[in-house]
Amino acid sequence: MSISYSAVGAGKERRIRRFIKADGRSLLVAVDHAAYMGQGPPLSVIGDIARGGPDGVLATWHVARSSAVELAEAGLVLRVDGGMSELGVFPTADVSTQLASVDDALRVGADAVVVLAFPGTKDEEVSLQRLALLCAECEKVGLPVIAEALPGGFGQEIEWSFDTVARAARIAAELGADVVKTVCPGDPRQFDQVVAACPVPVVALGGPRVENEDDIVTFAKGIVDAGACGVAIGRNVWGSPDPAKLVARLREAIHG
After folding, report:
1. What CATH superfamily classification does 5-120+142-255 receive?
2. Which residues contact residue 195 at a Cβ distance below 8 angstroms, ignoring those fewer than 6 apart?
3. Which residues does 225 contact at the CB level (< 8 Å), separation at least 6?
4. For the CA atoms of 71, 97, 82, 150, what is the dihedral angle to 10 degrees?
5. Domain residue spans in the chain?
6. Closest to 62 (Cα-Cα) out of 75, 76, 49
7. Distance, CA of 232 to CA of 219 (rounded, Å)
8. For 88-144, what is the HEC assignment?
9. What 3-state class would DSSP assign to 180?
10. Residue 188 gets which letter from DSSP?
11. How many whole angstroms separate alpha carbon 111 and alpha carbon 155?
12. Contact 177/145 with Cβ under 8 angstroms?
C-alpha cells in the first residue's frame, strides 16, 4: 500500500512537533559528537540531561538504543553520518559515510535524522548529493531531516561569516532539509540575516566549551530574539558540572 502525500505530511508535522514546540522554538541537546569527532559525553550524564527537560536530543545509534528509557520524553534526532575525527586535521573526503539508514531511524523511534553538509568545500558535491538523496528518501516516509550546514566544512575552507552561513543554510533548505543547524559566526543579534535567508527553521549550534554558563544562556536568548528556532548545544551542556540545571535554564531562555 502506497503512502499518500497527505499522510506523509501529517507524519512530518507530528514528528517535528516532538522537538519543535507549539511556540516554534526548540532546545536541542547534542550528544552525537562521538559519531564524527571521536569524542562524546560520558554515558552517565545522559540521565542528567534528560532530567533538565530538553525538547530534543541529537544522538548516535548507540545512545538512542542504550538510553531509550531516559530519553523517552524528548524528541529523538538520530545522527546517520560519521566517519570523521578530531584527532589531527579535519578530513572532508569521508563525508559520504552514512552509518545508519532511514529504516534504522524508524526502527529506533527517531523523530528526525541529522546529517552534515559542507557547501563551499572543494568536494561539496559529495555531502550535498548525500543530503539531497537522504531528503528524498525521508520524504517518502514522512521523516524530517536536519541538515548541519557548515560553509567550507570544519576546516573552514571559506570564511565563516553571516553571509556564507546564510548561503549554506539556504542551500541546505533548497536540497530538502526541514530544519537547518548551523554556526553563529558572531554577535547573535546578527543571526537574523541567516534566518531571513532560510525558508525553514534554523537552530544555532553551541560551539566550543566556555567556562561561564551565563554566556551560554545569553547566547541562546540572543539567538531566538534574532528570530531563530532555537539552539543545539552539546559539550557546553554535557561538560557542565550540573547538566540538568543548565538545560532547565536554557529551556527558560528559549521558551520563557
Report:
1. Aldolase class I (3.20.20.70)
2. 202, 226, 227, 228
3. 188, 189
4. -100
5. 5-120+142-255
6. 76
7. 11
8. CCCCCCCCCCECCCHHHHHHCCCCEEEEEECCCCCCHHHHHHHHHHHHHHHHHHCCC
9. strand
10. G
11. 30
12. yes
- Residue 176 phi, psi dihedral angles, 5° rounding: 120, 0
- As given in the structure block, the three cell numbers for residue 239 are 561538560
pLDDT tens for the chain, 256 residues: list them.
344 456 668 899 999 999 999 999 999 999 997 766 667 777 889 999 999 999 999 999 999 999 999 999 999 999 998 755 443 333 343 444 567 889 999 999 999 999 999 999 999 999 999 999 999 999 999 999 999 999 999 888 899 999 999 999 999 999 999 999 999 999 999 999 999 999 999 999 998 889 899 999 999 999 999 999 999 999 999 999 999 999 999 999 999 8
**Whether the Cβ atoms of residue 115 and residue 80 lie closer than 8 Å to each other:** yes
